Amino acid sequence: MNLPTEPNHRPTSRDVARLAGVSVSTVSNVLNRPDLVTDGTRERVEHAMHELRFVRNRSARELRMGKGRTIGLLVYDISGPYSIAVARAAERHLTEAGYMVMLCSSDGQPDRERRQLLELEEHGVSGIVIGPTSHDLATVDEIRERGTPVVLLDRASPDGEHCSVAVDDVKGAEQAGRHLLALGHRRIGLVNGPHDRRQCHDRRRGLHQAVEEAGLKVDATVVEVVVPEPDAAAGEASVGEVMKGRRPPTAVMCINDRLALGVLRGLQERGIRSPEDVAVVGYDDLEFAAMLSPRLTSIRRPKEEYGRRVAELLLDEIENATTHVHQQMVFQTGLAVRESSDLPRP
């Protein structure tokens, strides 16, 4: 038995052919067109593969054929529970369709995002799903023009030249604002992230619209604190800033549930009760929202369907390129009212 003796040698089709006593083309036929090979020859080749612990190099085959079965999924924050939930749903659907998913994170850095987009293209991915970090889609446009389909996640296509799946975050934040205003709150804290992030900008705008719709002045009603990263630690640290002053808020809206978790913790540390003293509303309605004490009121965004839809749009563009029509899907939010905001102001 002529097994490879070189250390770390990965068996090749040529090694299999030599051990089985057949040509390399016969090994290729066993792998790709087994109906062209007799049963006896196929069994001999398969036995050689087993002896050598041969693993086919799919990337090399795809390179020769000029096509791959890999999808790039580039999200803003790979550690974010919402991003992971959507990515999991998309990955499940893409895997069922026979594709492998490469998951990447831009960490909110435009330069890193550009590098990863170009690297995904260099790897020959069949398509890319991206949650862009900024309004500049120049690199996305370049990649699409060179033939790689791209679907925008959490961002509406500005010109209709891409498929996109997004949530109407302005209306979602309006829902949260109306809910708090209807309970009698007239001083509302807003714990927000950087305004150059679309979700932060849109949710701020939605709260402002709800306040103006109620006939109130934004400057007199909304107390905004901007944190560099919208996570639980930042939410907890923001409470001192939010609650300072002669007229502290009676309610706090957070632009995601992780911030809200931190705000609840910060309030409790200061002996401030929720909802008795301060109502709290989050955003995303993550799984843990209903497990907190008090249970967290939150704006519900779709996760499973969101991921499935973005996968379906990309697959259609990859597999039906000549008939594909770009679609821009916009999902609506829902309000899940729980204990953290279920008391009206006296």
Automatic annotation (TrEMBL):
Domain (HTH lacI-type): residue spans on this chain: 11-65
Domain of life according to the entry: Bacteria
PANTHER family cross-referenced by the UniProt entry: HTH-TYPE TRANSCRIPTIONAL REGULATOR GALS, LACI-RELATED TRANSCRIPTIONAL REPRESSOR
Record's protein name: LacI family DNA-binding transcriptional regulator
Keywords: DNA-binding, Transcription, Transcription regulation
Organism (species): Ruania alkalisoli
The keyword DNA-binding appears for this protein: yes
Gene Ontology molecular function, alphabetical: DNA-binding transcription factor activity; transcription cis-regulatory region binding
Pfam families for this protein: LacI, Peripla_BP_3
